[in-house]
Design a protein that fits this description.
This protein has helices spanning 5-12, 20-36, 39-57, 62-84, 97-121, 126-135, 140-169, 176-207, 225-249, and strands at 85-88, 92-95. The longest helix is centred in the C-terminal third of the chain and has 32 residues, at 176-207. With 250 residues, the chain is mainly alpha-helical. A two-stranded antiparallel ribbon has the order 1-2. A hairpin with a 3-residue loop joins strand 1 and strand 2 (92-95).
Length: 250
Amino acid sequence: MTGLAVDDAAWAGRWRRRAVGDKAVLSVGLVLAALLLPAWPGTVLVAVGALATAVLGARVPARLMARTLRAPLVFLAIGAITVAVSVSREHGLTVTADSSRRALELFGHGIAGTLALLLLATTTPMVDLLTALRRWRVPDALIEVASLMYRLLFVLLTTVATIREAQANRLGYDGWRTSFRSTGALTAATLVRSWHRARALEEGLAGRGYESAMVTLAPPLRHSPRFVAASLALVALVVVASVLVAGVSS
C-alpha cells in the first residue's frame, strides 16, 4: 500500500510515544506566535525555532521537511504576488513600497505558521491525533468524517499507483501526447475505482455494525511535564526576543 511520507515519518519518529497534548502545546504556541508577532523578527524566529525543533529535536529528515514545504511555498508565493501587485486602468500593473511590505509580511506569517503546523504533522500520526480529539470532547461526527477522509487518501494513493504502473509498463508515458492521454485516463479511472472502493469500505463497516463512531484502543503515550515546560519556554523566548529586537529596530 502506498503511504503518506509525512505520516510515515510520524510513525517512525523520535516523538512517536509523546502525548499529543504535549506536542500540541508546542505547535499551537508557535502558530499563535507566528500570527500575533510582527513579521520582523517574529516570523523569522518562529520559523527557525519550528524547523530546528523538528530537524534537531524530533529528528525529522530535513529532506522531508523541504519536500513537504514546496506546495505551501508555491501557494504563499502566489498569494504574496497578488498582494504586492496592483492593477488599475491608469497605471496598469504597479508595485509600491507599501504593497511589497505587506506581501513580505503575509509571506513570512504564512511560512512560520506552516512550519509550526508541520512540526505537529511530522511527529504525530493521524490516528493519535484523532484519538486525542475524541478525548478532548470533539463531536464524534467530525472525527468520523476526518477518519473516513484519511482512510480514503490511502485508497486514492493505492489506486493511482496501481493504474500508473500499468500504464507505464505499456509505454503510456512515451511522449507528451501519450502522457497527456494517459493522464486523462488515469484521472477518470481513479475517480471511478475510488468511488467503488469507498462504497465497499462503507458496506464493510455497515456489515460490522458501524453506526456512529468506531472507538479503538489507543496505545499508551508518555506525558512529560518537562517537555511542556521546555515548549512554553521556547515560545516565551521567541516572543521576548521578537519584542526586544522590534523595540531596538524602532
